[in-house]
Design a protein that fits this description.
The complex is a heterodimer. Chain A contains 14 helices and two strands, in the order ααααααααααβααβαα. By secondary structure, chain A is an all-alpha fold. Chain A folds into two domains: 157 residues, Orthogonal Bundle (Cytochrome Bc1 Complex, Chain D, domain 2), CATH 1.10.760; 160 residues, Cytochrome c-like domain (Cytochrome Bc1 Complex, Chain D, domain 2, Orthogonal Bundle), CATH 1.10.760.10. A two-stranded antiparallel ribbon of chain A has the order 1-2. In chain A, helix 10 packs across helix 14. The longest helix of chain A has 22 residues. Chain A is globular and about 75 Å long. The N and C termini of chain A lie far apart (57 Å). Chain B is an alpha+beta fold. In chain B, 22% of the residues lie in helices and 39% in strands. Chain B has two helices and nine strands, in the order H-H-E-E-E-E-E-E-E-E-E. Chain B has a five-stranded antiparallel sheet with strand order 1-2-3-7-6, with no helix packed on it. In chain B, strands 5-4-8-9 form a four-stranded antiparallel sheet, with no helix packed on it. Chain B is elongated, with a radius of gyration of 29 Å. The chains are: A mainly alpha, B alpha+beta. Chains A and B meet through helix 1, strand 1 and helix 12 of A and helix 1, helix 2 and strand 5 of B.
Chain lengths: 402, 162
Amino acid sequence: MKRVVRVASLSALAALALLGGCGEPEFGDAEKKTIASLALNTLPALKADTTNQYADVPAAAALGSTLFFDVGMSRDGTVSCSTCHKIDRQFQDDLPRAVGVGHTNRRTMALAGVARDPWFFWDGRRDSLWAQALTPLENPLEQAGNRAAFAHYIKNRFGERYERIFGPLPDLSTVPANASPLGTEAEKAAWNAMPASQAEDVNRVFANIGKAIAAFERSIEPRQTRFDRFAIDLATGAKPQGDAAFSPEEILGLKLFIGKANCVTCHNGPRFTDSSFHNTGVPPVKDLPPDRGRVDAVAQVQADPFNCSGKFRDGDESACRELRFMMKDGQQLVRAYKTPSLRGAATRAPYMHAGQFSTLDEVVAHYSKAAPSVEGVSEIHPLELSDRERVALVAFLKTLSE
Amino acid sequence: MLRAARDVISRRGAGLASIWRYILAGLGLAALLVGILAVVYLTAPHSAPGPDTSRSKKTASGLFVASFEPERGVIRQGELQSWLLTLKTAAGAPVEGAAITVSGGMPQHNHGLPTSPQATDYMGAGRYRIDGVKFTMSGWWQLRFAISAAAGSDSVVFNIVL
């Protein structure tokens, strides 16, 4: 009987040796193709933004940069774009929810590659980078200013620089110090008392502020990471050297990312985002006002006077197809939020649109469990990942930050 | 495997029980073969029956023949694209003046289309431009057209797998 066991076990060992030794390569052809599609070298050149004729004017980007970091661009002189979009922190603030003049209800978004987005904010309530840049300026919880005050401020402080880019400033001598259609009751009253041509003059200066800031933000692009070096070597057949070599755990994580865990379904392309909106069952934050995501943003972007259909757009209407063919209704928009890029994500906790998860482990656990959404329908299905698989996914995600 | 075979050979002639060893070794080899075959089978690309992806088909009630092609020939994931829907009667005559509505989504992902494509232009010869089509991810997409024309109303579903 001993011999029987011995012969059988030797046969089994031999079989195992064969399977392991001359087994499969690390990645199949389909996997290699997917990995190549995620690498940064497939990112196309940034397209022109015809709605902003100053988008690639260096002087506009320079003024935009000045304005981006200028705390004078706020009601009380304490908040700039860079207060939340911190230059040394991937242009985000590490907080669950942004804090400007007041406390907001949403996580600050990182800015790498932002000029490539078709929609802005977590819910896509703006349709261009320049229209986006205007919104926090007047949000009472962010920079809390008003457009009349911004026009005066630009004239007084940056008048010469402004005029060299955008042409002569309008006569602002009779424009109230504070006025905006979105401001306090007094600011609204002052705005409504202005002649239409004067309101348009102020709106034009305001739009140009956004166009300058957008011109600056176009320069904020994603950087090459360990993953990209690994992917390039994999594509060319070179053996990854130094930090481009992945550990077995990172390889397992990458395989899961593009395979069983289905992450790549939405986190696709070289920016790891489909630039679209999805309900993934992320729970609301207790005590915050109701937040229904994309479904409420549709009306906001349509009503925005600075949207692509509005009179402040440069170029022709052919640039407005995203707005024209926008999905406007349906259950799928309820609690749908933008797919964020995963580049750099590992070093910028917390996660999700209101900072619901404080670690990547929590994020992966959420997707593994796939609890139903409190409202609307979650698109994700439970993954049943083992502990080892969850750890491997996180290990892979870290390669996008190194 | 070689060790197993050598093991068997070295014991040749050790008595009547050696027959059993041969049988066992044979069984071991057979198991090994089955294992290798299983690996080959499991790693080979599967040609699972997918949805019908033909670009030209009869509408549900047979009123029209519809074909659907990307206007520029290639599908580019993540980009707004225009497609052409060509409608002919069963007899082959172009269908003019059709009212077309578009819907669809991804049957396996609980979601509809990310955009709302529309029939924006009539290009002549039964061809309609369907603009605003965007496929944001790979997988199985469906586009459903409700068509109303002089001959009546019908619908057709095209499957697109990226």
